[in-house]
Amino acid sequence: MTGFGDATAVERVEDGRYKADLDGGFAIGEALNGGYLMAVLARAAMDASPHAHPVSTAANFHRVAKAGPAQVFVEPRKEGRTAASALVTLVQDDRPTVDALIVTGTLDSAAEPGYAGDRPTGLPPLDDCTEFLPPSGSRGFADQVDMRFDRTTMGWLDGRPSGRPEVRAWFRLRDGHEPDACSLALAVDALPPVALNLGAQGWAPTVELTWHMRAVPAPGWLALHGTGRLLADGWFDEEVEVWDSAGRLVAQSRQLARVPRA
């Protein structure tokens, strides 16, 4: 099993152009997870920036990315003392697969929040949650991430969706890679679609996802809280908050996706 660092590595070919070998271990079916792709883009953006963290990412997903070679192009838009922005594009088979406007900045790991809202409720202690174990011999997303789910938000697995667009889980990488900027990009898109608890079935392709890195995460498990507000006319939204082991909000996201079809 390839480690997350190696799986998201990029190699600079020249200024503004990188090559990557996309890892099929982060696929669900044949499609690579969108959070994994954002982590690859974040690595290129950070390498090309004077700043250390992807504080804001707005990604548009144009088509399915698959395992294998790809290129990443970084086009700077602005560079300042506290932030820099760039358009970062993942290209595979000579076609743009993902475009992302990424703003980088440098976060202070010791910074204390001036204000922090209440942590979402409902996620039981780790030992009271359910682990999903992939079938023996399989290789895919569930082999790479260790997730422990709140059972009350997983009724859709047994044909009993809760009727509430929410999923909650604990999250970490199985290879021991501690939380960092790139693993936060993965975490915000790691939950099953909240639309499954509204009776939808199947794969839900993300069209646009915006996420913000709010703090440098502490080592240990991350708590994921996913919710939604509206499912209508073949579209639904999903919001995710990521809290670290120190009880801090470290990432938040919102995405627009197509309603799953069996």
TrEMBL record:
Pfam families: 4HBT_3 (PF13622), 4HBT_3C (PF20789). Residues 128-259 form the Acyl-CoA thioesterase-like C-terminal domain. InterPro entries: ACOT8-like_C (IPR049450), Acyl-CoA_hotdog (IPR042171), HotDog_dom_sf (IPR029069), Sec_Metab_Biosynth-Assoc (IPR052389), TesB_ACOT8-like_N (IPR049449). Residues 24-104 form the Acyl-CoA thioesterase-like N-terminal HotDog domain. It comes from the Bacteria. This is Thioesterase family protein. It comes from Actinomadura syzygii. The lineage of its organism: Bacteria, Bacillati, Actinomycetota, Actinomycetes, Streptosporangiales.
